Amino acid sequence: MSIAGPQRPRDRHVLYSPRPGTFAAALIDSHHLLPGLTSIARQCAWLLLLAIVFVPLERLFALHPRKFFCKPLGQDVGYYFISSLVPSLLLALPLSMVAVGAHALVPYRMQAAVAAWPLWQRIVVGFFVGEIGFYWGHRWVHQISFLWRFHSVHHSAKHVYFLTSARAHPVDNVFIRLCGLVPAYVFGVASPLTPSGNLVPIMIVIVATMWGFFIHSNVRWRLGPLEWLIATPGFHHWHHTLGGERDRNFASMLPLMDWMFGTLHLPRNQWPAAYGIEATLPPSLAGQLMYPLLPQRADAATSTCEVPGTATDDAAKLPGTVNGLLPRTVSK
Question: For the whole model, what pTM was predicted?
Answer without folding.
Answer: 0.78
